[in-house]
């Protein structure tokens, strides 16, 4: 399974890890993925969704 959000399409970012002496080595910032049951076409499905997208969906559900 890849680390990609099923709703927003967010994926891991990459960059440099910097030591105290400013030496650079590559690192990754992974997406905060959560496994959630969501209704898709009237059927419950388990998908991996980012925490930010989940928060947005819950807010939309609450507001109507």
Automatic annotation (TrEMBL):
Q: Which GO terms describe its cellular component?
A: ribonucleoprotein complex; ribosome
Please report the organism this UniProt entry assigns to the protein. Answer: Holdemania massiliensis
User: Any keyword Phosphoprotein?
Assistant: no
Q: Which SUPFAM superfamilies does the entry link to? A: L28p-like
Similarity annotation: Belongs to the bacterial ribosomal protein bL28 family.
Xref: InterPro entries: Bacterial_rp_bL28, Ribosomal_bL28, Ribosomal_bL28/bL31-like_sf, Ribosomal_bL28_bact-type, Ribosomal_bL28_sf
Top-rank taxon, per record:
Bacteria
Q: What is this protein called?
A: Large ribosomal subunit protein bL28
Name the keywords, alphabetized. Ribonucleoprotein, Ribosomal protein
> One MF term from GO for this chain?
structural constituent of ribosome
- Which region is the signal sequence? none
Region Disordered: start-end pairs = 1-25
| Gene responsible for this protein | rpmB
């Amino acid at each position: 399974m890849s680390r990609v959000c099923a709703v927003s399409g967010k994926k891991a970012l990459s960059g440099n890890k910097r030591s105290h002496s400013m030496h650079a080595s590559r690192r990754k910032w992974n997406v905060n993925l959560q496994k959630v049951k969501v209704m898709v076409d009237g059927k419950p499905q388990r998908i991996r969704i980012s925490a930010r997208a989940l928060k947005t969906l819950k807010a939309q559900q609450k507001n109507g």
